[in-house]
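cache lookup: miss for this entity combination. No prior model stored, computing from scratch. Input as submitted by user K.M.:
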Amino acid sequence: MATHNFQPTHYHVTIGSHDPVLRIADGDTVITTTIDARGNDAADNTVAERGNPQTGPFYVEGAEPGDALAVTFDRLMPNRRRGFTGNLIAERILEPEFVRTLPPKRDVNWDVDVEQGTVTLSDPESKINGYTVPMAPMVGCFGVAPPRGQAISTATSYVNGGNMDYRGHVEGVTVYFPVATPGALFHIGDGHAVQGDGEIVGTGVEISMDVQFTARVVKNSNIVWPRTENDEYIMAFGNARPLDEALQYATTELLRWLNERYELDTESASIMLGQTIEYEIANVFDPAYTVVAKLRKSWLDRIR
Amino acid sequence: MATHNFQPTHYHVTIGSHDPVLRIADGDTVITTTIDARGNDAADNTVAERGNPQTGPFYVEGAEPGDALAVTFDRLMPNRRRGFTGNLIAERILEPEFVRTLPPKRDVNWDVDVEQGTVTLSDPESKINGYTVPMAPMVGCFGVAPPRGQAISTATSYVNGGNMDYRGHVEGVTVYFPVATPGALFHIGDGHAVQGDGEIVGTGVEISMDVQFTARVVKNSNIVWPRTENDEYIMAFGNARPLDEALQYATTELLRWLNERYELDTESASIMLGQTIEYEIANVFDPAYTVVAKLRKSWLDRIR
Amino acid sequence: MATHNFQPTHYHVTIGSHDPVLRIADGDTVITTTIDARGNDAADNTVAERGNPQTGPFYVEGAEPGDALAVTFDRLMPNRRRGFTGNLIAERILEPEFVRTLPPKRDVNWDVDVEQGTVTLSDPESKINGYTVPMAPMVGCFGVAPPRGQAISTATSYVNGGNMDYRGHVEGVTVYFPVATPGALFHIGDGHAVQGDGEIVGTGVEISMDVQFTARVVKNSNIVWPRTENDEYIMAFGNARPLDEALQYATTELLRWLNERYELDTESASIMLGQTIEYEIANVFDPAYTVVAKLRKSWLDRIR
Amino acid sequence: MATHNFQPTHYHVTIGSHDPVLRIADGDTVITTTIDARGNDAADNTVAERGNPQTGPFYVEGAEPGDALAVTFDRLMPNRRRGFTGNLIAERILEPEFVRTLPPKRDVNWDVDVEQGTVTLSDPESKINGYTVPMAPMVGCFGVAPPRGQAISTATSYVNGGNMDYRGHVEGVTVYFPVATPGALFHIGDGHAVQGDGEIVGTGVEISMDVQFTARVVKNSNIVWPRTENDEYIMAFGNARPLDEALQYATTELLRWLNERYELDTESASIMLGQTIEYEIANVFDPAYTVVAKLRKSWLDRIR
């Protein structure tokens, strides 16, 4: 269970079967950094092209197609003060007629104070300049190489993860991915100091980060879509347009999970989920939208 | 501010400009009952046709087109023990290929214990018979007469409310509706002892209820879609298919609310909502799906 | 087989169980008029409120729930010269970002010359003033009373027909509707001198019309959605949002039709339709969109 | 204007920046072959993995990002007799409840007779064995390398073309693509002897083909989505889910085309398209659906 310090020198704007930057063993930990969605690093210098450039990929020894890769986020911490967001809810998220009334688009800056744990709007033009929310760091875009030799833009997401932009991907959670290629090839980037549901302005508070994660191989998993687990919840993801279809994938993946791990048949799982399931809308901005189907673990404890 | 006791003798399966059963003054309270989604009353006798039969309508004096009607749910309490749910997640909510694997549909009974505050699966055929969740009573279908003389099926929902099936419509909340016809004509029915997000098995735990509500008229409101308020949140509703479109209506209605009540222009509201908005999926079963766009009131307090 | 001349004196902006204006026998013909979408008659006087006001309803003796009503359009002819259309493709039909570039909305007039069979833009402001297309008269909104006592806005469409806005609903076609109430209660209105696919500017060339139709009862039909037949094609309709769902209904209804009338099982019908089906997008403007699933009759002649 | 004979020795199941198999000059013609969707060649031997394996890519000299590549299909001809299709309309295209009634999936063979120009079902199990339709050869999947270094599965389509499965892509048409990388890198495969609208059984009559095409570079084009032209029509494509969104892209691209080539402003184009546009549903089976927005060229001739 080694710990690796890795300093990236180049980045990828697709998630694919790129040459690995590091080979690690099953169970190893990596300490590294990510740059922001526009390619700016901790010193706010532009070091890569825009569009969620990824650190990695990391080759995890022993991971084979048919397995799952489990990645636990041990630490996600902004490593500079300037973050930025969009200033307007995206056109596709509003009534089409309302779009006619929108002012011009621009970026606004936020001051990320790690000590205080706050994120404060720093935009003299804005009427709510100084508006402050608590920091809640998360990663928006990460995943493993997709099947069929594809290289998929970091603008979007798919069965292999990618730009899911889910505010629940914070320190302490474990994400499971279906492995499509030997070594899995894990990529990570696109940190947010905080984000609302849906990533409706097209961004969280975009920021570079110090990142630490631990990767484990789960042999012979039947996982189809990404799954996430924290102390309280199990969660299944669907990444697609429209939301209805993302929700179909997320719901069906949760059924598969309950069937495999808890031996619940479809009827029993349906009866229980009907009164207990929770949904979250992770993003409605990216080319694929993301819906999370969640179940509180305590609901499962109630089954004998 | 009178309190009226009203015992219904007939029910409606559309929400429309039906003859009022009672005329009440602005600010009055009504104590009445609702029957379950299949038309069964507190004694479990079938007294109306199935499909969310409604108690009412109640004519609220002073309500005119252009106003809003504010209805506060003072009490929502199951008034019998037998509830029932579907046994399967609806076909449209699952991956289409997965639908081929589904067993037959049937109803399952639940025991609703108001004293204990529990709801327990009472279905000897089921592998999880005896499964128990806490009671959390809510109403699924209620609203005011829609515009243009329409009479809209209680299977669905629209700008006037209707079958939104939102688990957050519990005791203590206030719902606002756009008034389309003099007296507003408020209808109510379809109680659930508990429900998960999305109403994915096509039902909550369906039950008859004792209901108490208070109605107030808000003059000259510009409300377009239903809005709900509780101690912690303001919430705007969109009722449509697909989910993407329901979300457009809900998000835009929340912007309108912030603009009217808090004088936030679109850019300021967008900047704030981008990092603070929450969405809930109320139902993905009914002909119109329902999305809730929510904002915690404490986020508004931060705007000086 | 009587022929009735009927001159309307009032109109409806919902399709519902309104008092019939005329009772006719199975097989009878009606000669009447319709007013335009804004309520203007042959003399261009406003005689009803806007929104596709309907002539009727007509009670057809012998029609009972479970039957189909077959209506043949014998004659559809504009009865005045001024028509009008919108000037812009509707916001929802364009890329959301493109909506920001749209100029203001307005109506433009067209000159409908029945003798010449032409429709000519008559709008001095327009850069293409004088643009001419051939006349191709059709009706946009018509149908029978819906189930459950509903009264449905003439803005939209449903299983009972309504505002389907299909350019193929011209003279000579026969439309079949599922009967939900005794007498079927047929309504008709919303004539267009011509229209493109999708009704993308929110209108065809809106016009008042002289109309003649013949109504027949088909006993014990299993029709779920409207069906249309002309010399060349059988066509099944789906009315819903989004288009994907309208297409599901239309395709499945065509399968049901092939099964009932031609005894084709699902596999045989699928194999044939896979290489022969045609789709049309009737409207993408109204609250429910309309998709037509069509099969050329000659493809059916090729089966044994 | 050279003509190149090229015999492929390997194939790609993504469209991306693969090493070119041949470099050709602007205006050159290529005579080559394609294998079927499952990787079977003219001798019906499996020579590649399944999923629309592509011949190419072909590097066209002079093509640069910002240009368009125009490809004319000079010849598309099946080069063996056995074709095959699916036996069932795909689950996602049917009402979800109807999916429960579907029999098992299997392939069925068709006999493709190039001399007679016929395609005949050759499946002894089938009740309509011997069913015959006219041959109408087309290509389903082709395109140029996408932007950002992506490699996109040949199961789907995007701005660069791909698996659009449009039955109108027959001999004689010219397709325009936005060039994203030097040389454009044109790929082609997935021939169908015939296909219905929507590719609803998941296939046309899949077959290997002899193919001849000519490629030209159009400098400084502003094309965003693929465009196709034949003698009668100009056509713009949108590739996305759901159909509503594919239709938005197609319609907006047609507006851009009319603006650039015919100097029609948005209002004039809208007024004309409102009464003249035609839509086709190319495919509703692939991960991205494809809608075609078409305008008959004769409608443009009427603008002086």
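stored under new cache key. Chain A has two domains: 3-82+135-218, 227-301.
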